[in-house]
Amino acid sequence: MKQKTLxxxxxxxxxxxxxxxxxxxxxxxxxxxxxxxxxxxxFTYKLSPGLVxxxxxxxxxxxxxxxxxTVEHMLSALQGLGIDNCLIEIxxxxxxxxxxxxxxxxxxxxxAGIRTQxxxxxxxxxxxxxxxxxxxxxxxxxxxxxFKITYFSDFSKRSIGPDDFSAEITPLVYExxxxxxxxxxxxxxxxxxxxxxxxxxxxxxxxxxxxxxGKPVNGSLRYPDELTRHKVLDIAGxxxxxxxxxxxxxxxxxxxxxxxxxxxxxxxxxxxVS
Length: 274
Description:
22% of the residues lie in helices and 36% in strands. The chain is an alpha+beta fold. It has a domain of 120 residues: lpxc deacetylase, domain 1 (Ribosomal Protein S5, domain 2, 2-Layer Sandwich), CATH 3.30.230.20. The longest helix is centred in the last third of the chain and has 14 residues. The radius of gyration is 17 Å and the shape is globular.
């Protein structure tokens, strides 16, 4: 398969989810082999799992004087569309929250157009299964042709029963089944999230708020299992920090950004580029 980039610039603007400031993201076409890079605060750098600074309710990257919060939804859209080469200019310290999903980013990139390049994709494979365990949370990555994510959720303590969702991350499947799943939070968490300096830009328009009864406060869900699908969306975005086209099946049980990044680092150390 051939590498892909954008046909022209795509722009997304708006307030960030956690820091709340108005920001602008500009997706720029990039040459073959350039990979996914960020331009921010006068620095330009290629993304990697090693740049992750924090995983508290989102993925924050840092390179020298550039710190960018909550990059996973933006990167998830590029993963879903199979974009290999892109320079992402971020004016501010966090991509816009948009509607809480990856779809506004996906729509902007599709509107700009996707261009197939001459070079063959750099495929990332693994020789044998990789495992990660953290008390009752587990993640396994298995050798696979293509990129597939299976997630098992259990929010029983929040009045939401166990659920699971699995998807092959191809452009058609991702857009239809994953991209519109929104970020979410629980009403009981609001106090400590505010104290932690987070959700300054959160609203009922860019996140699902779950009440004590396990039901959304702000309208209906886009998918019956939207919370579980958003976890798949997050994994796709965090794994986009690995440069290349992924051949692996990710199976996760109750994991979060911390586990996604830990596994991405494992993959970086053991990958085979073919």
